[in-house]
Amino acid sequence: DAGVIQSPRHEVTEMGQEVTLRCKPISGHNSLFWYRQTMMRGLELLIYFNNNVPIDDSGMPEDRFSAKMPNASFSTLKIQPSEPRDSAVYFCASSAQEFYSNQPQHFGDGTRLSIL
Amino acid sequence: DAKTTQPNSMESNEEEPVHLPCNHSTISGTDYIHWYRQLPSQGPEYVIHGLTSNVNNRMASLAIAEDRKSSTLILHRATLRDAAVYYCILRDLVQGAQKLVFGQGTRLTINP
Predict the structure, then answer these.
(1) Residue A62 carries which DSSP code?
(2) When comparing pLDDT for B82 and A50, which is higher?
(3) I need a surface site. Which of A107, B61, B74, B79 has the fewest CB within 10 A?
(4) Taking CB atoms and an 8 Å limit, are A43 and B102 in contact across chains?
């Protein structure tokens, strides 16, 4: 089975540019999560979706960040305009989540983003 | 959210057992104990979870104290591939079960 697929694996761009990160969850999974990992702050949950609907976006740092899930097999995380402090590894994860269950989250290999 | 405390780092030798401790003194009755690990340059991967009883799977064993205020992840025979950061996470089944809140974890080094 294909796991969670993220693209691109690496992105280097200049400050002020728009950045779009993409994620394809595991087929049949109904929950999708975006995380960010930095040395200073570790792994942080940015936002998650259940059945394509955003449930909790309290981790999104500011209005420059937006996430969409137009269908069950695709999600994007967009940063506009990007800043050097956005440099991090961004992970997408999915799970077959039902309420009151303990389904594990399956993570992609991440996108390493560098903003110059 | 209930918090967990783990040692920053541990070291062990290949083919020996490894016991990774986790303290969670404020655990609630609806908190499950989850373990994930993150190998270098990869995303986290699920290892095991439990509520009250000890649990075993193909990757590891989870030993949970009777008062549930601590737990231990056991790798029975470590290999070099087990070198990773191990995260102990409490997951409230009733509220916010979808969330995983990662701490700093324990960086495990395996010596050949």
Answers:
(1) S
(2) B82
(3) B79
(4) yes
Strand ranges (DSSP E) for chain B? 9-13, 18-23, 31-38, 45-50, 55-56, 61-64, 70-75, 84-92, 106-111
Q: Is the separation of the CB atoms in A113 and A88 below 8 Å?
A: yes
Does position B94 have pLDDT exceeding 70, yes or no?
Answer: no
- The pLDDT tens digits for B16-32 are 999 999 999 999 888 89
H-run or E-run covering A20: strand A19-24
Place of tokens 């541990």: B10
Structure tokens at B31: 């908190």
Sequential pLDDT tens for chain A (116 residues): 689 999 999 999 999 999 999 999 999 999 999 999 999 999 999 999 989 999 889 999 889 999 999 999 999 999 999 999 999 999 999 998 766 667 899 999 999 999 99
Closest CA to B42 of A108, A105, A33: A108
Residues of chain B contacting A56 with CB distance shorter than 8 Å: 96, 98-99
Rounded Cα–Cα distance for residues B21 and A53 (Å): 37
- Taking residue B25's Cβ as centre, other Cβ atoms within 10 Å add up to 12
- A31 Cβ under 8 Å from any chain B Cβ: yes
Number of H helices, E strands in chain A: 0, 11
